[in-house]
Amino acid sequence: MFLEQGIKPENVFWKYLIGSVFIITTSFIGQIPFTLAVYFNYNGKDAFPTESDAALKMFEPNLTLFLVMISFAFAFAGVWFVVKYLHHQTLLSVTTSRKKIDWNRILFSFALWSFFSILSFLFVYYQSPDNFVWNFKLIPFLILVAIGSILIPIQTSTEEYVFRGYLMQGFANLAQNKWFPLLMTSLIFGSMHWFNPEVTKMGNIIMIYYIGTGLFLGVITLMDEGMELALGFHAANNLIGALLVTSDWSVFQTNSIFKDMSEPSAGFDVILPVVVVYPILLFIFSKKYNWTNWKERLTGKINVLQIPN
Question: Which residues cross the membrane (predicted)?
Fold first, then answer.
């Protein structure tokens, strides 16, 4: 019933297009503090930074993280506004089909992926310890923990509300089925990472990881009839990653524990999470939450006549 909660006669698809433009606009408004900081920090000698890479490296990493993450708080407010006033829904209705948000699901997913993330990092580290240097500084790291623990979940939750909540219900309104929203949100989610420096460094093959991650998050949302597992996974993925390791070629640098000094390359290790790790997670979730009827939940049609008023 998760997708069906957004199916209403008045929720025509063009409203989701307008809502998306509004959310993007609020995100741009949220970028004003970062833009002003770049402007006032500009020394007038070098060329004014027009590319994001140069702008992101102008400040101390914790300040950069804070300024970048602010825009997601504005975007989240935009999501709330369009859901409430454009679609006349509650935020709960684009979060879960349950009567209230299941925080135990969020915490379980967060803990499970944190465990997998730390384990996989340790494996990579002990395979090639020379590729990493100790980057830990107590005060900057504690500041990172404070900023990251608040703002990174806001960032990841905003993305989940946009893709696995708002847009997934929007495409369900358009197609009246479940496979189309799953496919479209996965492709759009992956495409949003196209301009990340990781793509430039590793090549287009890394898009398999981004799109595959979007597909995984969509599958667990549809199978579990809510976003809680996706919210926990996404928060763990970004927060643990920011705390554990940074590199000069990532989107932005952090005061993490380690720094990866290796030259990035994409191989089977990029595809491994999609074809091996994510199926293991699906198996764990399916056993814990007794998922059944996979075909109907992922590809079935939406019967509007069965939707309560």
Answer: 12-42, 62-86, 106-126, 138-158, 179-196, 202-222, 229-246, 266-285
